Amino acid sequence: MSSPSQSGTTFIGIDLSGSTIRAAVIEPDGRIVESRETPKDETGVVEQVAHITNSLRSGDRRIAAVGIAIPGLVNRQIDKVVVSRDLPDIVRTDLHSELMRATGLRVELENDANAAAYGEYQLGAGRGSRNMFYMTIGEGIGGAVIFDGKLWTGVSGFAGEVGHITIDTEGLESTCGKTGCLETVASAPNIVRRARERLYRDNTSSLSRLALNRDFTADDLAREARNDDDFSLMMLERTGKFIGTGVATVINLLNLERVVLGGGVMDAGDLILKPIIAEVKRRAFQPCFEATQIVAASLGADAIPLGAALLARDAALT
Ligand SMILES: [Zn+2]
């Protein structure tokens, strides 16, 4: 039975990771009771978040805390955004204090992949596990560790940065400033880059319908793969090998029960999931592989606001 304080309280989760700000109000059990979307103004994020929060609050006086998912590195011990390539302004501002001042509510900041991981762990494809790794493969590659039922963020909040493990010591420069990271070959923009380079180089690939569309995206490539385009299928398969190599490293290190894979690139479904699992099987220590279920995420875009709200709930109720 839930306590009176639990049943009488709701929580907001806000996702700042995309071009649209997505907000959700949840009951303590994670049920979404209200949601909002608005285009993000990169220079006025604090005001926007305060405005959304206060407007949600005017319709629901039970709101007790707000969780904000940030595209960047967040140190929750000092409530600071340390690095954010997408939102440099929020590194300069004291987002946490300003939002508390503007809303009068308890505010929890968290990295976006960590928030999504917590959402999937509590209510999505991670349910029922105790030790889980979440990986999101989209515009970038992020990850998060659930260790013994808790989000494990490392000594300063940055654990799980699987997109920046080295996959090719001779590789391209990464967004982190180093070279050859997993992200430089397997993120959506890099899948497109590799496909372009190959279409340019390889005459037989010019049979691909993608060559006719100069500005194709990773989604277009996935669609062509579903239409049995051999080139697109091969590109997804090769991308799966890179991601599988990263996942094999993770499970060798952590001996996890479950790996949940989310993000836009995973919308290709089995066409990418199967090559990933095959590569993990080929590369991981066999007992670690056998102990681990590798599955697709199930909450889609709701994972981030939901996870952020659940983290705010946990912080407020403990
Ligand atoms: Zn990197």
Q: Could you walk me through the main structural features you see in this protein, from its secondary elements to its overall organization?
A:
The chain is an alpha/beta fold and 318 residues long. Helix content is 41%, strand content 21%. It contains twelve helices and twelve strands. Strands 3-2-1-4-7 form a five-stranded mixed β-sheet. The protein has a five-stranded mixed β-sheet with strand order 10-9-8-11-12, sandwiched between helices. A hairpin with a 3-residue loop joins strand 8 and strand 9. Helix 8 packs across helix 9. It starts with a helix and ends with a helix. The N terminus is likely disordered. Bound molecules: zinc ion (ZN). The site of zinc ion (ZN) has 7 residues, from loops.
Low-confidence stretches: 1-5
Radius of gyration: 20 Å
> What is the 3D shape?
globular
Please report the total strand number as a whole number.
12
The chain-level structural class is alpha/beta
Summarize the helix and strand pattern as letters: HEEEHEEEHHEHEEEHHHHEHHEH
How much is the average pLDDT?
93
Determine the strand fraction and express it as a percent band.
Answer: 15-25%
| Multimer state | single chain
Q: Specify the number of helices.
A: 12
Instruction: Report the sheet with the most strands, covering strand number, pairing sense and barrel closure.
Output: 5 strands, mixed
